[in-house]
Amino acid sequence: MLILDNFEHLINPNSVQWLTQLLNTAPAVKILLTSRARLNLREEHVVDLRGLPCPAAVTTENAESFSAVQLFIQHARRVQHNFNPQSKDMAAIVQLCQMVAGMPLAIELAAAETRYFPCRHIAAEIQKRLDFQSAPADNRPARHISLRATIEYSWTLLAESEHIIDVARRLAVFHGAFDLAAATKITQATPHQLVSLVDRSFLQRNERGLFEIHLLIHQFLSEKLADSPVEEITFRNRHVDYYATLAMSASGGKDENMERHYFEVVRILQLHLDNTIAAAIWLTRRHDFSQRRLTSLIETLIFYFGHAHCYQQWKVIFRTLRQSLLENPDGNDEERWLALIFSSRIAEADIHLHAYHRATEQLRAIMDEVRALGNAALTSACLEMESILAIRAEDFLAAAAYANEALQAVKTHGGQYQWPVYRTLGDIALAAGDWAQAKSAHEKAFALAVKMDSVTEALPVYKLAMGKVAHRQGHLEEARVLLIEALDAARVLGKQEGIIACLTALGWVTTDLDDLDGAKELLAEGASLNKTLGDYRQTALLALAQGWLAEAKQNFADAQKFYEQSVDTFEEIDDRANLSRAQMRLAQIKRRMTNGE
User: Fold this and answer.
1) Do 417 and 410 form a contact (C-beta atoms < 8 A)?
2) Cβ-contact 381, 363 below 8 angstroms
3) Which has fewest Cβ within 10 Å: 254, 266, 385, 567?
4) Mean pLDDT across 538-560
């Protein structure tokens, strides 16, 4: 066995010929060779070496069971023998291991810094600059004294081909995974050049066959691209054009209903999410951005995150977009409109996350400017959110006033702006117990949705509302049929939040129809789905329905536990309207238990 380590700097025709002759002359010899570049010999068996295993999420749970974390702690104790990471340190160590993708040299260099800096500081600095980590050049090769030195060394070896260097630098415009079509269209790379970059460890192929760039390599390439500002602007603009066009084609074009293309939007975004986000961020930093391109990217992202129920990520992205927009403000109306759009979307995410107080503060902070700007669609959207918040606060008069003002703002606009407002008016009436008004408003909303070709999205909402109205009016069999139709439509749409809402409502009705086993099955499915969704409001609504089911079974102690859980959760998210319902149920079950019923 002949072991040759770090052979990449020796690769040339003579060395490769010598290896070939050795194998031919001594066929029993086995060579174990490590290199950042392939030899491309016929006898070669390639094993790609990735980083050490590290936790998939930033968590301290079982973190020390991962090799990357173990290596960090081991090397930290070489420079600080009493190193004993606490919980906050462990979280930073996990984050650091993820950032370097488990690269042993990077972990060793980072761990050496614990002699001088806390772990969270080391993790933060690595994100900023490659030469933060450095070791004394005592008995180690110069290329191993820092991450920058290591990557610069590989870059020097790549310099044999100017064209490959150009392509490698341009690849910095990508974020996350990208495919061959994007690489060739945006950077003008040839398949052969991309293969060469994979063979030289500047690119990787993931399990889906897409290209990826290691985070530290990406940081290095970004610096190289920034050295040529004109080239950077050119290729980042190409990147924006490509992904904006992709977003528009996935959604069917500017004037088509995105819902009709639901599965294509999801497929495209699952493959290209990071690059779509990066394109939107780059556009907001440019004063000469195209509103249509940016609008297409934003609408596609909102649609995707809404259907995926990823509201925390939605919020983070729109905060980033707003910050990017305001980095170099021009102060024109278009910029003001965009900043208000981003702020309103942050408030919308907070509503979905049931952070009603934060959403209220956010909307109150921008409403005067929104009205002054005079954009009817934005004004209506913000007022509709104010209305939803008023429903949660059990202020139905204010909710109706906001919704009617929202409707007035878009009275001369198309049905796509009026439809959600009528739906909100229906929800207000439903919460207030005005069944006739609830039915009328939801019927208007659905009629507009039909005209707008949005039946797929509107049908489960409409059937759910009609089922709730029928239930409140005591028409149980009619309610059951309507809610089954709502559930079927929600399953077709594939939006978990809607499916859970339908299962919860159907569980109530099925309980009232005395099909207790059927109700248990429905509510159990809803609870199972909500474990992955993690929606607090749905959790509380399910607990309320489960309490009603337990009460119907005469399991009063279980009913009390469910009602208490519901009360606690509604209090936590400050949903006062539903809190009143839960408190009433809890008080009634306590009276029944006290009276010995």
Assistant:
1) yes
2) no
3) 254
4) 94
